[in-house]
TrEMBL record:
One of its GO terms (molecular function) is oxidoreductase activity, acting on paired donors, with incorporation or reduction of molecular oxygen. It comes from the Bacteria. Belongs to the cytochrome P450 family. This is Cytochrome P450 107B1 (P450CVIIB1). It holds the Pfam family p450. InterPro entries: Cyt_P450, Cyt_P450_B, Cyt_P450_CS, Cyt_P450_sf. It comes from Streptomyces himastatinicus ATCC 53653. Keywords: Heme, Iron, Metal-binding, Monooxygenase, Oxidoreductase.
Amino acid sequence: MSTVPEGEPLIFNPFTPDFMNDPYPHYAELRREVPVHEHPGGFWMLSRYQDVFDLLRSSLSVEQRHVAPGPFRDAYEKAGVTDEPRLKGLALLDRDPPDQTRLRKLVTQAFTVRAVTAMEPRIRALVTDALDTFAEAGGGDLVETLAFPLPFTVISDMLGMPPTDTRHMRELTGTLMRSVEPTTDPVVMRAVEAADAELFELVGDAVAWKRNHLADDLLSALIAAEDDGDKLTHDELVAQVTMLYVAGHETTVNLISGGTLALLRNPDQLELLRAKPELEANAVEEMLRYDAPVHNSRRVTLEPYQVGEYEIPPGSFILANLAGANRDEEFFGPDAEELRLDRENARRHVSFGGGIHLCLGATLARIEGRVAIGELVRRFPDLALDGEVEWNGLLSLRGAARLPIRV
């Protein structure tokens, strides 16, 4: 069924009443009808799997300064805020080569697979504590008790951050993540700018403190990281730490809550996971495909970019619709809209992006999702929803703000 009146053009419209509850019918319609979509708001959107896959692995820019004059730039001026990118534009996610290459090389010296996998015992202990809380209360809010505190605590422990106001940091990081939302709301834009500045100062203070209190942690390793005499400057270090801190937990909240909700709404798959725990790793990949923690990623064209018969001009802002691409029937088959934990090509999802900007924290997210959801399912055979899901109101980072469960 179409989401627009007959005769009117189909456009990406995330502001309809039903979109937040389930955006996937709209994504499917866009994929069928306007897979290369020039939006009247001044951006393009791609939603077919192959188009998104190719875009993510292209040499297109991620730097906001290359966007041509138009609605997005005009919105900054009207809001009375600067167009300086988040974290001074120094985070890996916001840089092109050669700067991105240099920064990633230094960061990956510290953020290694070995350091990440070594966290699994700590992750299991935190999950056990959260499940004990559910057991004592007979249930509760999955987001508040497990999905948020687990990745937040894990990345804080890994970094070796000094004691901080957890609630305030949660508010600031949540606001900062709105910078990846397709919004021109001046109130939101000013709030993001203020949160960005405050976070940069707070993390800068933590970095300065850590220089005098070096330890066996990720932040100390980042401070020490060096490549042929090259080291991260103070501002670069602050930007990478903040990126790891924010991206290290915000997206994993959506993986744990979204994956659990998908199982509860598909009881046959929930029972399959209980019966075949060896499916855990592939199950997490299928959950990532079925409901992506991040729905959109961005690129900016520096020269004409061809997608089929369409030529996207230089200076264009393109949204890669990761969530829509993950359900493309042309790639994942006629049952792409269904959750199937034993799907053979589930790992081919694009939820972690791709190319040089492939998510640095993918391994950590997979471990946290596997342990949290696996243990939850095993421990509570009567696991069930206990009320309506409350959504966070975000578009690119759509997820549950509250997910009541009964155990």
